[in-house]
Specification:
By secondary structure, this protein is of the alpha+beta class. The protein folds into four domains: 170 residues, Threonyl-trna Synthetase, Chain A, domain 2 (Threonyl-tRNA Synthetase, Chain A, domain 2, 2-Layer Sandwich), CATH 3.30.980; 249 residues, BirA Bifunctional Protein, domain 2, CATH 3.30.930; 35 residues, no CATH class; 94 residues, Anticodon-binding domain (Rossmann fold, 3-Layer(aba) Sandwich), CATH 3.40.50.800. The protein is built from 18 helices and 27 strands. The strands form seven sheets. Strands 10-14-15-22-19-18-16-17 form an eight-stranded mixed beta sheet, sandwiched between helices. Strands 24-23-25-26-27 form a five-stranded mixed beta sheet, with helices on both faces. Helix 15 links the parallel strand 23 and strand 24. Helix 1 packs across helix 2. The longest helix has 29 residues. The protein starts with a helix and ends with a helix.
Length: 586
């Protein structure tokens, strides 16, 4: 699909979803008098509107609101825009008691004309970009109710948010709703505790802090070892940094100027000020600066599983996908500018290989370019943006450009993965940084013996291990591939007479590196199979008198497939072949 085609489709969906949010607001105000309006933007899959209402919305209200929307849509009203002066716009909404709209207008720049959009009798403050009329608003569904603070500030009013989805066709709507039902079944917040992977205890431990249970900690250990071995092969060197640092470190890095609201509060010790680290970058650049570096030594690639803490608002916390404490597969590459293209290509190829090993094969990449406010030399920005674009092309990735959406300190590449039910997840980031090398005066000795500014690249492939773990749980619905499964096989004796033989099978599997459990409880074999299936153990090795006499096991998959009788050596060979086929790290 060309960029022009994609932009046209996205523009059409934007207009459709934006227009639907106005129709939702109209219906809510008709059904629930006294409701005040705030904002109602389109989203990637639909739309929402935030309301301040004396009525507490309940799930049964959604059907009533939908009916009212459909009734109003029968008029096929045109969307008509008009402009008012700032004073007239404020007066209009003050007369209607719409205090949130008044606040929005007062925050707009002086002298700016204020635009309104009308359809039928409903008028809303709006910049526009609507359908010509409401006649194409057909295939929609209101999906859920949630809370939201006004302007995302937990010190402000708590609002009620109504979400909806809308699509150009009935088939697309049904497909989306089916995917959402699948998503509910895969919710990592339900599956994680159920499968003994992790838990979150806000009352005793704290919100947004993860307790890793033995099985989840084992999967995480497998992931971390996989990453470490692969990074060593790719020429990275390990680093470790403390969990806190002096305030002057964060002053030098600029975090206290630009990021303090996301950091945990200051701690005092022996009249010195400390902060818990929200990022590892200042530590890595300090490690780099601890020695002189020649141009011959570069690139230097530092890698750390760095646990960081960020003061996320409680309203945005979401299981392991959005936590306050999490660990990043964090790397900082220090190189010469003439090495930047090769380094970015290495990172992109490595990213693709790693994500494919975890079962992701569809990627979306975006290049975010120089914003209006930035640090560094514009020529360096132009050069870096060109290098990033060429690196993506040379690595075989298609990409789109988000013009002006880079951070103030450098252009970046963001990569999204698509999961098994079609959802997109922000995952990897590659970021050029013009700011920290300047703040820390990080240099290297060039070929003439002079100090030259080093090029610094921030890079995380999985991002947060906690977030990626949650994505994996939902992608596989908890049924991890064999190489990642915390328990790869369950040995199930039918009666107590086979337990001794079953124990020898367990010992042989364990000695060959297979993660195995013996289910020797006094239960019928059907119950044992159900338990192992519910625990999503990849294989069940059933042992009865016949298997014991033949020195074999009857192999079943968690999908219910009967794979027949095998001797233990063949089972081990099968498992190892399946593991080797899934993983780059042999």
């Amino acid at each position: 699909m060309s960029n022009i085609q994609k932009n046209t489709i996205e523009d059409t969906l934007y207009k459709l979803r934006h227009s639907a949010s106005h129709v939702l607001a109209q219906a809510v105000q008709e059904l629930f008098p006294g409701t005040l309006l705030t904002i109602g933007p389109p989203t990637e899959d639909g739309f929402y509107y935030d309301f301040d209402s004396p009525h507490r919305f309940a799930p049964e209200d959604l059907e009533k609101i939908e009916e009212c929307m459909r009734k109003n849509l029968k008029t096929s009203a045109e969307f008509v825009g008009e402009e008012k002066s700032r004073a007239d716009a404020i007066a209009y909404f003050q007369a209607k008691g719409e205090k949130y709209k008044v606040e929005i207008i007062k925050d707009l720049p002086e002298g700016e004309q204020i635009s309104f959009y009308r359809h039928g009798s409903f008028i809303d403050l709006c910049k526009g970009n609507h359908l010509p009329s409401t006649k194409d608003i057909k295939h929609f569904k209101l999906t859920k109710i949630a809370g939201a603070y006004w302007r995302g500030d937990e010190k402000r009013e708590m609002l009620q948010r109504i979400y909806g989805t809308i699509w150009p066709t009935e088939a697309e709507l049904k497909d989306y709703l089916h995917r959402m039902e699948e998503a509910k079944k895969r919710d990592h917040r339900e599956l994680g505790p159920k499968l003994g992977l992790f838990s979150i205890n806000p009352e005793k431990i704290g919100s947004g802090l993860i307790l890793w249970h033995p099985k989840g900690a084992l999967v995480r250990h497998i992931i971390e070892n996989y990453l470490k071995e692969l990074h060593l092969k790719q020429g990275y060197q390990f680093a470790l940094s403390p969990h806190i640092g002096l305030s002057k470190l964060w002053e030098t890095s600029g975090h206290l100027d630009y990021y303090k609201e996301n950091m945990f509060p200051e701690m005092k010790l022996e009249e010195q000020s400390y902060y818990i680290k929200p990022m590892t970058c200042p530590f890595h650049i300090t490690i780099y600066k601890s020695d002189l570096h020649s141009y011959r030594e570069l690139p230097l690639r530092l890698y750390e599983h760095g646990t960081v803490y960020r003061n996320e608002r409680s309203g945005v916390l979401h299981g392991t996908l959005r936590a306050r404490g999490f660990t990043q597969d964090d790397s900082h590459i220090f190189c010469r500018y003439d090495q930047l293209g090769d380094e970015i290509q290495r990172v992109l190829r490595m990213t693709r290989d790693i994500l494919k090993d975890f079962g992701f094969t569809e990627f979306e990449l975006r290049l975010s370019t120089r914003p209006a406010s930035f640090v560094g030399d514009p020529k360096r920005w132009d050069e870096a943006e060109k290098i990033l674009a060429e690196a993506m092309t040379e690595s075989g990735f298609a990409f789109e450009v988000d013009a002006g959406e880079g951070t103030f300190y450098g252009p970046k590449i963001d990569l999204k993965i698509k999961d098994s039910i079609g959802r997109r997840w922000q995952c990897s980031t590659v970021q050029v940084d013009f700011n920290l090398p300047q703040r820390f005066d990080a240099t290297y000795r060039d070929g003439e013996g002079k100090d030259a500014p080093v090029c610094m690249v921030h890079r995380a492939i999985l991002g947060s291990l906690e977030r990626f773990f949650g994505i994996l749980v939902e992608h596989y619905a908890g049924a991890f591939p064999l190489w990642l499964a915390p328990v790869q096989a369950a040995v199930l004796p039918i009666t107590d007479k086979q337990i001794e033989y079953a124990q020898t099978i367990v010992s042989e599997l364990e000695s060959n590196g297979i993660r195995v459990e013996l289910h020797d409880r006094n239960e019928k074999i059907g119950a044992k199979i159900r338990t192992a299936t519910m625990q999503k153990i990849p294989y069940m090795l059933v042992i009865g008198d016949r298997e014991k006499q033949a020195s074999q096991v009857a192999v079943r998959s968690r999908a219910g497939e009967d794979l027949g009788a095998m001797n233990v050596k063949d089972v081990i060979a099968k498992f190892k072949a399946e593991i080797d086929a899934k993983s780059l790290v042999k």
